[in-house]
Amino acid sequence: MRIGFFVWEYPPALVGGLGTYADYITREFVSMGNDVTVFTLNPGNLKTREIMKGVEVHRPLIADASNVFPMFVVDDLKKWGTNIRMFNDIFIYNILSATKFINSMLKKESLNYDIVCVHDWLSSISGIMVKNETKVPVVFHVHSTEWGRAGGQGSEVVSHFEWETSQKVDKIITVSHAMQEDLIRHGWPKSKINVVWNGVDPEHYSPRKCKPEDVEAIRKRYGIGPDEKMILFLGRLTWVKGVTSLVQAMPSVLGDYPNTKLVILGKGEQQNDITETANRLGISERVAYRFEFVPEKERILHYAAADVCIFPSIYEPFGIVSLEAMSMAKPIIVGAQGVVGFREQVIPYGPDQNGVHVNGGNPTDIAWGIKETLCDPDRARKWGQNGRRRVLQYFTWREAAEQTLRIYERLQHPQEQEEYKVVDLMEKLSRP
Q1: Contact 369, 383 (CB under 8 A)
Q2: How many angstroms separate the CA atoms of 391 and 330, rounded?
Q3: Residue 59 near residue 121 (C-beta atoms within 8 A)
Q4: Is 242 in the same domain as 381?
Q5: Listing from the earlier edge strand, what are the strands of the sheet with 138-142?
Q6: What domain count does the chain have?
Q7: 420 within some domain
Q8: Among 72, 304, 403, 414, which is most buried by a count of CB atoms within 10 Å?
Q9: What secondary structure letter does DSSP report for 153?
Q10: Residue 339 half-sphere exposure, CB side, CA atoms within 13 Å?
């Protein structure tokens, strides 16, 4: 297949999980014999067109029109303040990318694309334009939503982009059943929505690839001795990640397990809240922070150095960090209340257990989860082994790519799509 792939972030300009997804899934598509053309944002210092690991990447140069938008847009967008520059960049990236795709790739170069996929609202304008101008099927990949990220509030403009795109595209792919249910609750077309879990590279994220001396150096960096326990959180420091509640849980944990240290990696708007909370609780010596983006190689060493990994999110449509920790054979503690895909990754009981579920908004419950994991080291190690086995079975990028391509291919063959719907209906009717 020839795939047009519109995504806001792509290497080397990575911001979060969406960029990691785009990096791995496009390479997997190419390795399976598909042609992929990526259209992504250019921060201004990257090539406008190049081949990266078999993927053709276009990055149109943008210009600043941020002082123009307030002249004619709705009041909601005026509230963005200085963030209007971000909207400017996204808007112009979409217009230039879609225009180049339609007029240059399709019309001038006469390339035949089988599918166009757009990712989140950040590329939704491109999806709408492609639907307006061409007959190429468009798939909307929804990794998160504005109402979820903003706790039911957020920008009306962004929510409108999400809604309009969901109505116009041919298919929607989202990252978890929890997210699918949330989209349906908000009135999105149920018949369009498919679920494909994200993945991880278990060869890259492998404890066998880490040298013991490198792992020990990480622990020494934070002053963690051989008889101490290291709890690791890694992610954006924003309210939906539950990091402040995690810090609030630590006095209870330290009361039972004083030789424990929490390491927090990431950056975000809650940095000051985190440090102030630790100081107020008198536990700043047992909490270490690195408020910066940590390169992947070093992140892997942090996973290897940790005894427990914890991600107490209260909104997390999927969450790749937990898969990375599972692939590194670590026991996992995850938030499981609300729209959280972690609960589909982590089994909290039975012979295949690989971690525990907690309420990420409740420090007492988080403390219970940590203590439950620390109380039996042998059992925790078994949970880690179960987690890696689960990754190998369900959460590789090849598995994610194969499932995604099957959905794309059904859009190429409408007859097969109708037959699939009939089979799916028969299966549902046959259930007790």
Answers
A1: no
A2: 12
A3: no
A4: yes
A5: 49-52, 55-58, 35-39, 2-6, 115-119, 138-142, 171-174, 193-195
A6: 2
A7: no
A8: 304
A9: -
A10: 25
- The β-bridge partners of 6 are 39, 118
Beta bridge partners of 340: 316
Average pLDDT, the chain: 92
In sequence order, what DSSP letters do the residues of 303-318 get, joined into one string? HHH-SEEEE--SSBSS
d(C-alpha 188, C-alpha 180), whole Å: 9
pLDDT in tens, 59-102: 999 998 888 776 666 667 667 676 778 888 999 999 999 999 99
Exposure of 380 in the CB half-sphere (CA atoms within 13 A):
19
Show the domain range for 120. Answer: 2-195
Question: Is residue 407, in this structure, part of any structural domain at all?
Answer: no
Between the CA of residue 374 and those of 253, 363, 381, what are the distances in Å?
9, 16, 10
| Helix, strand, coil shares, percent, the chain, to 5 | 50, 15, 35
- In angstroms, the CA 42 to CA 58 distance is 9
| Cα–Cα distance measured from residue 60 to residue 115, given in angstroms and rounded to the nearest whole number | 21
12 preceded by cis ω (within 30°)?
A: yes
Looking at the DSSP bridge assignments, the partners of residue 396 are 200
Is the CA virtual torsion 15, 19, 21, 24 positive or negative? negative
Shared domain check, 163 and 246: no
Distance CA 54, CA 30 (A): 6
In the numeric block, the tokens 């962004």 are attached to 158
Class of residue 65 by CB neighbours under 10 A (exposed 0-12, middle 13-18, buried 19+): middle
Other C-beta atoms within 10 Å of 350: how many? 7
Three-state SS at 15: coil
Name residues of the chain where pLDDT drops below 50.
419-420, 422-423, 425-432
Q: Which residues on adjacent β-strands are paired with residue 288?
A: 263
Residues written for the chain: 432
